[in-house]
Structure formats: structure tokens, C-alpha cells
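Late entry, magnesium ion complex.
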Amino acid sequence: MTEETKSLNFIEHIIEEDLSNGLENNKLRFRFPPEPNGYLHIGHAASICLNFGLGERYNAPVNLRFDDTNPAKEEQEYVDAIKKDIEWLGFKWANELYSSDYFQQLYDWTVDLIKKGKAYVDEQSSEEIRAQKGTPTSIGTDSPYRNRSVEENLALFEKMKNGEFDEGDVVLRAKIDMSHNNMHMRDPILYRVLKKAHHRTGTDWCIFPMYDWTHGESDYIEQISHSICTLEFKSHRELYDWYLDQVVTSDKLRPKQREFARRNLSYTIMSKRKLLQLVENGVVNGWDDPRMPTISGLRRRGYTPESIKNFSELSGISKRDNVTDVSLLEFCIKDHLNTIAPRVLAVLDPVKVVITNYPEGKEELLDANYNDYAEGFGSREVPFSREIYIEKEDFREEANKKFFRLKLGKEVRLKNAYIIKAESCVKDAEGNVTEIHCTYDENSLSGSGSEASLRKIKGTLHWVSVKHAVEAEVRVYDRLFSDEAPDNHKDKGFMDFVNPNSLDVITAACEPSLASAKKGDTFQFQRKGYFCVDEDTTEGKLVFNRTVPLRDSWAKMETK
Ligand code: ATP
Ligand code: MG
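Prediction complete; structure with ligand written out below:
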């Protein structure tokens, strides 16, 4: 087995087999078919990467097809957002298409079906129809309207189209077999009446084709060779094929539906309908809230297209349902940002340090690399002065030997600056440390090459000069759900597992170079994690999102 064949996923194996059985390479064509009823999420990214990945591997076109057959839920806003997300991921579709463009063709095919005696108008209520469906172990019951004449059906269907029925009064059903062992084959609904304006066809149509009737025929119209969908459609495949049988002609390619497992992520829900509930109930601030598993949320959170594509690659394409650990996604973004994000100094929970032997009024500009471990990042100057901020948690009056940070009587190095020693501290009435007094070794400047600068000191702290600090709002996110599978409880819904502390807004002290940071810029705040500039940033106010901490606090909590 060559490297090339070893890395094929099972869908690619299917395609390879089709090619070896005579399918011409130039007949390969794929599609990504979102319904514009919400924003894309990380699950969709699996399908996008799969379909567009096939397009790249086989040099074949990939259509973006909006599956827009339900005007009650679909909106132009979603169409625009979906296009933006796919472009951002770096994929190019061959054609932007809409199932609604095929309404006339679908209608014409439906009239043919009726003429062939393969479809009928049913006037029963949806409850009655459901009750007659039977169960997997008992056959269904024929509708009393099943044997209407072709003429009657044609006339009624025409009336449906002309808006002479109200929603729910009638449906058009395919006449297949009410005793079929596949429930989907028991006279499925082809059309229903919906009197809502469609985002593209307006009020031209008031009958709308169902998913099954639309999807395969759209694949056929576009001559999609492999229509790849998720596992829940496996049982629909027989119907997909039955519908194709009604329209395929021998001179055209017959599409083939194949299924792969949905991507599920731990600590997350992934259904547009449910994500919409989070938005509508104000649990999050919109579809692109950085806590959302949407592509737009991840983008705003600071995720890169590379990290999402790598995540797709690593989580793979599977035949069976499974759950991917969200920490894999977090690993992927850390892994990428580690190679691209400049490292800067920002103190998230500041306490003041006064360096008592540093001359008052003196200021120095210290050279600091944006990355000490890789070439090409360049450097900037950071101002140093007598008063600096460090993290509160980096100081203790007393601590054991394993605390390599600042404690009374001991030394630490300040990143890119000097070695300081804690001499005393000032406390408020509650005993909280409000100021730390230190001395510094003036010969210990990092990079100076002096003997003092080369002294071995265990801890290095990040810091920011008080006088030069730039204030920033930092939004620290935690998981949106406190449960590993919020969607998977019998007695509770996912809303019951919303983590009430998923957002913490703090004020940080940042090194002054960050004042010129632009929306979307990404940084490593040394020792703290990766942060990006949020779009809420204005001239006078910097806002950062924490993309991901350097260390995973959840892993720590769980092993406690
Ligand atoms: P949702 O319930 O989130 O709305 P959906 O399947 O109804 O999901 P569509 O817009 O119909 O959403 O999906 C477009 C394509 O993306 C489909 O081919 C679908 O199978 C695929 N897809 C959706 N969710 C996932 C997922 N979690 N993992 C992999 N593929 C997915
Ligand atoms: Mg759907």
C-alpha cells in the first residue's frame, strides 16, 4: 500500500472504486448543501472540508447549493453568513445554486408523476397521515384518497399551486407502498402548502417540495456524482433512489448518495435550531458570540481557518457516530497560534510593584523579541520604569519551594528586563496585598551578557510599566455548557446545562505596543494564553477575546 492509498478516507475509496469501474474523472462533481436557516457550525466544517477536499483531490467542481425549500425558517442573512464562512475557510465553490431555482422543474416532474399514477393529493390531517404510517414492525394503512383518478389529482395539485388551499389542508404524496419495510417508502409527502414569502421566490410559490424530493433531483440537475450526507439519511437512500428512477434518463449521470457520521463535539450542541434558541433567549450575544460553536463564533474567538481545517483532518471521516473531544479543537488552535502569534506582555489581574532602588523619573526602553524561539517575528521596545504591574497570583508572602514566582526575600526575573527581589508588601484592612516593594539588580538586564544577567533564576514573570500601561477590556470565556453531552439527557434539556460563568469581563494592563493592534490581530499574552482583538474595539477602547488559555484548566479540575 502506498502512502497515497493509506491516507484515503472511506468516501475516497468509494470514489476510487467508481473510477476503476469506468466513471470518468471529469464526471466527478460534488456539492455542499446547507439549508439557510442558521449560521454554519463546526459540524458543517466537517462536511465542507470533506466535499471541498474531494474537489481539490480530484480537481472536480464543488457547488454551493442552498437547500432552501422552507420559507418559514430561511433568510437572506443566513445565505450571506454561510458564504462568508466558506470563503473565510478558504474554499471556492464552482457555482452558487439554490434548490428554489429548480421549483419549476420539480413541479413539472411532479405533474409527470401524477400522470403516471405515482402521486396523489391527500386531504387528511397530518395527525391522520402519521397514524396511518404504521411502525417499523407493523405495516401502514392506505389513505382513503390514495386511489383518486389522475385527472382529479392533476386538478387538485393545480389548485394547491394556485393557493386555493390553506396550510395543512392538503399534501401531495408519492404513491409507493404503505406496507414497505422502509417507513420512508410509505407514501412520503412530496409537497406541502406554505403561505409564507420565500427569501428568493417571494410569493411566486405557495407549495414547497419536501427535502427528499428536492435533494436527489437537485443533485441530478447539477449532475453531482457523489452526494455525501450524514448518517441519518442512510434510511432515506432507498427513497432517494426511487425518486431518481422517476426522472433519470440514460444519457445523464445518475448521482449516488453516500453517508458519513456527523461530527459531534463534547461540551457542545450542534444543531442550528438549538443554536438559534441560545441566540433568541439571549444566552449568548448573537450567532457570532465567541462562545458559540459556529464558524463565525470561532472566527471571532480567534480561531484560524488553518486550525479548523487541521481539526477536520485530525478528527477524520467516520462511518459510525462518535464524539470528538473539544480539547482536540483547542489543541489545534494552540498549535497554529504558537507558530504565528507574536508574544507580548499583558497583566490580567494586576498588582503594583515598586522597585525602590530604581531612580524615580527614570525610564528605559528595553528590546524585546516577539518570539524568542522562532525567526521572523521581529521585536519591539517595551518601556520599563520604577513602578510596574505583575499578576496578583504571581506573588506570595510565603510559599513552598515549588513556587517559582515572587515571594518575600526571593528573586525572579522580569521578562526582557531585570532580576528583582521582593523585600516587603503593603496590605489593606482585609489582608489583601496592594503593593509589593522590591529591589532590582541593575547589572542583570536580560540580553546584556553581563555576569549578573546570566545568573540562573528559576522564575520569569511578565510585567507592564504602570505609567505606560494601556488598559484593555478582556473577555475571558469558559465552556458554554458544563456538561459533556448537554444534548443527551432524558430528563433535562441542553438549556439546563448552560454554564452560568462562561464569560468573565476583566480589565487588563497591556504593554503600550498593543495600542495599535487591529481588529482580528492575534497575540500570545505571555504565560496566559492566546488573545485576539475583538470587533467591539474602538479608537479609545481595546477589547480582547481570550481564544484559549495556554494550559487547560478543565483537565486540571477533572483530575483533582
Ligand atoms: P443542523 O441540524 O445543525 O441544522 P443540518 O444537517 O440540518 O444540521 P444542513 O444545513 O442541512 O444542516 O447541512 C448542510 C450539510 O452539512 C449537510 O450535508 C449535512 O449533512 C452536513 N452537516 C450538518 N451538520 C453536520 C455535522 N455535525 N457533522 C457533519 N456534517 C454535518
Ligand atoms: Mg437541516
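Residues 272-340+472-558 form a domain with the Ribosomal Protein L25; Chain P fold (CATH 2.40.240.10). Will revisit in the morning.
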